[in-house]
Amino acid sequence: MKEMKKFAEELRLRNVDAAVLAKLEQIAEKKGLRRNDYIKRIIENAAYSSELLLLDEKYEALVAMVLQIIETNASEISRLTSLIERMADKDG
Predict the structure, then answer these.
(1) Which residues contact 32 (CB under 8 A, 6 or more apart)?
(2) Coil, helix or strand for 85?
(3) What is the band of 83 on the pLDDT scale with cuts at 50, 70, 90?
(4) Could you report how far apart the first and last alpha carbons of the chain are, in Å?
(5) How far is CA 71 from the centre of its chain?
């Protein structure tokens, strides 16, 4: 059996400035969409934006942690390289 998406019956907005509607219409046309579809996308994006922000914060923390590990590794590699060079100088 085919699963179907459930949609709300209807959403109406009142007292929207005519200039705003015209701008939305203009943007939608540039994107090749109907105004309704464009506004629907905006609403859907807004509904999920908090989840995306949380994911972005987690990603930022992960990148910071990886960067710290890379910096520590680079420092240790440099220290070991110096140690090896000093040992080679003593032997040579």
Answers:
(1) none
(2) helix
(3) very high
(4) 79
(5) 25
Q: Does the pLDDT of residue 86 top 60, yes or no?
A: yes
Look up residue 24 and give its two tokens: 């939305």
Q: Which amino acid is at 79?
A: R
One-letter identity of residue 5: K
The string of DSSP codes covering 16-84 is: --HHHHHHHHHHHHHTT--HHHHHHHHHHHHHHHHHHHHHHHHHHHHHHHHHHHHHHHHHHHHHHHHHH
Indicate whether 2 pLDDT > 60: no
- Cα-trace Rg, the chain: 28
| Digit-coded pLDDT (tens) for 45-60 | 888 888 888 999 999 9
Residues 34, 28 contacting (CB under 8 angstroms): yes
Neighbours of 25 (CB within 10 A): 14
